[in-house]
Amino acid sequence: MQSKKIKVGIVGGTGYTGVELLRLLAQHPDVELSVITSRGEAGLPVADMFPSLRGRVSLVFTDPSQADLTLCDVVFFATPHGVAMSQAQALVAAGVKVIDLAADFRLQDITVFEKWYKLPHSCPDILANAVYGLPELYREQVRSAQVIGNPGCYPTTVLLGLAPLLEQGLVDLSIPIVSDSKSGVSGAGRKAEVATLFAEASDNMKAYGVSGHRHHPEIQEQLRQLSGVAPQFIFVPHLIPMIRGMLSTMYVKLTPEGLKTDIQALYETRYQREPFVDVLPPGSLPETRTVRGGNHLRLALYPQAETGYLTIIVVQDNLVKGAAGQAVQNMNIMFDLDERTGLEVVPLLP
Amino acid sequence: MQSKKIKVGIVGGTGYTGVELLRLLAQHPDVELSVITSRGEAGLPVADMFPSLRGRVSLVFTDPSQADLTLCDVVFFATPHGVAMSQAQALVAAGVKVIDLAADFRLQDITVFEKWYKLPHSCPDILANAVYGLPELYREQVRSAQVIGNPGCYPTTVLLGLAPLLEQGLVDLSIPIVSDSKSGVSGAGRKAEVATLFAEASDNMKAYGVSGHRHHPEIQEQLRQLSGVAPQFIFVPHLIPMIRGMLSTMYVKLTPEGLKTDIQALYETRYQREPFVDVLPPGSLPETRTVRGGNHLRLALYPQAETGYLTIIVVQDNLVKGAAGQAVQNMNIMFDLDERTGLEVVPLLP
Amino acid sequence: MQSKKIKVGIVGGTGYTGVELLRLLAQHPDVELSVITSRGEAGLPVADMFPSLRGRVSLVFTDPSQADLTLCDVVFFATPHGVAMSQAQALVAAGVKVIDLAADFRLQDITVFEKWYKLPHSCPDILANAVYGLPELYREQVRSAQVIGNPGCYPTTVLLGLAPLLEQGLVDLSIPIVSDSKSGVSGAGRKAEVATLFAEASDNMKAYGVSGHRHHPEIQEQLRQLSGVAPQFIFVPHLIPMIRGMLSTMYVKLTPEGLKTDIQALYETRYQREPFVDVLPPGSLPETRTVRGGNHLRLALYPQAETGYLTIIVVQDNLVKGAAGQAVQNMNIMFDLDERTGLEVVPLLP
Amino acid sequence: MQSKKIKVGIVGGTGYTGVELLRLLAQHPDVELSVITSRGEAGLPVADMFPSLRGRVSLVFTDPSQADLTLCDVVFFATPHGVAMSQAQALVAAGVKVIDLAADFRLQDITVFEKWYKLPHSCPDILANAVYGLPELYREQVRSAQVIGNPGCYPTTVLLGLAPLLEQGLVDLSIPIVSDSKSGVSGAGRKAEVATLFAEASDNMKAYGVSGHRHHPEIQEQLRQLSGVAPQFIFVPHLIPMIRGMLSTMYVKLTPEGLKTDIQALYETRYQREPFVDVLPPGSLPETRTVRGGNHLRLALYPQAETGYLTIIVVQDNLVKGAAGQAVQNMNIMFDLDERTGLEVVPLLP
Fold this sequence. Notes:
The structure is a homotetramer. Chain A has twelve helices and 13 strands. The model of chain A has no long low-confidence stretch (mean pLDDT about 95).
């Protein structure tokens, strides 16, 4: 446990992952919010933009050019892709830890990064040492990391949903793994766009990114890590008329060995010491609202006896375990705090 | 009944009143959709933007500079304020009827118009002959009008909710009339704005325009017409997380004469021949969904015995009776059709 | 075209499929609504329960014991499973046509029916002659049918989404077909239940029926018809916070022949004369709101080059093409009307 | 500060106020959840009914007949009206404090209680000593109370919205006070009812209780306390398609003295030491989501210069400050804890 507070900086706090970081960090006992930058909103008190923070956050947005982030212990980037990598070098040089909630440090394969994000990567050496911040898979690496690529929301559900099987080699990889995923609209961010207006997105649903979504290569790179091969993977995300919440329904064919395994026990054992992964009892039907505002990911398992398939359903709050909560979890690990610190908010139901 | 079809032009068909006009006119037996203009979308088939119209509307958006609107019998303006008045002169000169769904021809008092809309009025002579298109109050004038200022959505609910009382002088005008009004989010239009994003407007509500809303002077001008004096009027609109629907709750103090009157009978008599005004039985609680997609306005009356007040609740679909449906109703009157033609769609419930 | 109107009876008009039938039939030019029964609501005007029908439907609910349904030309059953089969014998004997919107006449295999619906089938002889009312597959049989089992909502999306492939033998049936389906909450009916309360189902989603849903055997029986074999089929339905709307995302492996086929052209050709099936252009992303209130089913196709799979996305309004609209479409065919009569309502968007 | 934890019992924990109490108390550092009763669910782990509490609440529902509530320090009743008064006598005799979230101890006038709740009051002597648990008005009485009648949700907004004016006599009481109030659907409770189904209440709104709502007499009794007279009061509640959230828009006529007063300063001064009342800066538009899940009530003031009226808008979370949060606030006061203990959850936005 720390004796003094962690000085935290946030770059880009006007989006949904930004305000979510503020919500969680404002309740974190070991954190001092030092600086938050925004080019467009410099001078505005944060609580004027997000009145939910009135009385809890007294920071004012600072112009990036005026902010000395090297005085922080850790800086979170809640920015579009490309921002974190442009500032990482200076921060790393100053000994500041970096947690990027965008994609700059998620993909180790630079060619893939540049293809999907249409940006040259400006600091491949830092990337090479960056850690993919999924604590349930890489806790030890996170502990000593200087730079974290915080996972995408969809990848978190898919990877934690599949890891116990892939680690044991129980999936028949001659058949594609399918993840049919569904996200609340906050996942699209706080950008003014017609497609996510209330009158467009409410009482309506659709698939999107069917021919290619940026989380596809991220998931594939990690599936390769987990399985040792490059599995075929079909990924279809859908936009659902709810603010928060993400649910992935995965369909995998088990190997003969997998068919003989007690899958429920396997998952329970694998995750028994994980504070934020909850394996539900057999027959449960996970609902997204059971994690609304909380950092838990809950999952359930349904063997399909007739086909030899396993259906796996995973839920999380896309803004918490899928973004800001996971980032705080990573910070806790990096600063040797109890991993749950500041993250024990009970989900809001109803 | 016409032997040949009415040639209709629409200026600005990419917003919600535009697509709603298209929905209604596509089902109208006496209309031929001739042209629809859009600067930004020229060349795009309308049904590509609004796939609900696939197979029903084959028009392509035309650049305004390429469209000869003078070949139409009537032109609807589903545009921002200021567009209709810039084109009205030429259309009127060519004998084309004009129905403006924005505010250019709603307010007879030009000073008030210019104060609230921050625009000089470019054709005061046409305005002087324009008719406020609320058929239940001005049907005869609509019949012979060349230019219609189609009423605002809130004013339609307030004026039809109060007309029977004001026409009979039954309201104590020494006390302000209060209208606490609520609108679905489509009323804010199809503009990309943060405030009306799903993740902002859903599971949330707020008042807006409390210190002044453009429908306030419009309502006041009409209240003056109805009552012969300028009544005090307090108007607070609210944004409600539903796509369509508008509900106004009005609070008025009755005169001693009003207190002796059978108000229910008064309203039923006043509106008995109106095809689109439905006075509900005593004790009813109007729901917005009972008019979803339909051109009806439904209302109910609640005398407050202890206070001598009357509470009036009015519902409509803001995009139909509050905008596009009323515009088509006006067109039907202007072209001597049965007023209900093309407007007999049964509301969608649930 | 008929010279006189079709006399229609509805048994059980207090649920969502009932009010939806009323909405459509009230706008149908060749129909006379003769009688609607309800045990619980006898004596109540239908429009008192559903004020959206005020001025359009003047029927009063009749107690079943007082209603002589044999005077009708056709009777729709919008009732729980088991009701239609208890009355079908008498109606058939009287020459009345029957369209059951529940499951009594959907499954030809009585053993399967009795297993899933926990009811003995009371008129297997009538079932043997009943027709599965999916016009796009069985139009000729519908034309001469006396009794129609109107398809379930999910099966309509799955079967029309797969038919062109299965008819041509282009699916590799050694691999299970997966349908990940999503439904609006109205699909659960108008029963008072905690799980579908607004405060439970809003801003939330979940899967249900993962271990077995009644539409599974219905789909499997029809897949067998289409393919000649009994394909493996995995079906996971989900509950989505929208009133209406259904979207099925299907994942199938193509045969080598299928991989060489122009799938888009295959579907366009197969459905080119179908008034209610709309094959969207390549790259389209179907939204449920584009069919809200309309009888269209729209679909799009996404070949997954790397895996040899095809993803198929289908949308419909679960209460229209998925229930009442399809029932009216069947009626139109049975009475030799233009199939589109009364069903040309333009969907409500937004 | 206590050295040992407060033993808490909850009677009736299966509704929304019950689960909300559990959410808040599970995060309260000075509370030990001892027992929760439910007749219908005895034996069921609470977290099986509400999986959001998994890992946080290990209690199992106990049958009321098996629960010895006299071992508790305080018992919360989250039950229908009539339950608390049937058990209060025994608990009070045993020295247990009682906080009733229903109406049994809200109205001092028994005649009014019996008229509106259709129940004889079974313990008028306890009622006479019960305190109306609105801390901002009755903090000292709460401190020493044995039995608390926790205020209704609507009354909390109306009374805190009006108190500063009425305490100073600045409202012209010859004119009725109007409160046009709006509530999210969770206010209707977790009962299986058709009217609050998702498919009924979503994308829809309505007024209800226009001719009489049980919160009307409760508000009037308190207005009398505040003003010394019995002001006329018009109250119209509305049902809004959101889960949580309440907004009251109030219209009052100011006295000449009131018109000369700096109303903003008056409210800021009145509430400056209140931890849970937030007077927003002039021109603010309170949104319900800014208090979602939090115990704050926020308000804004709009003088209507032309009419001499003041419009007051108040928002709260109906389940927190309007119910369970306020109950915990009362408990904190009764047990001499910092009033904010366990209530510092930052609201969930978006």
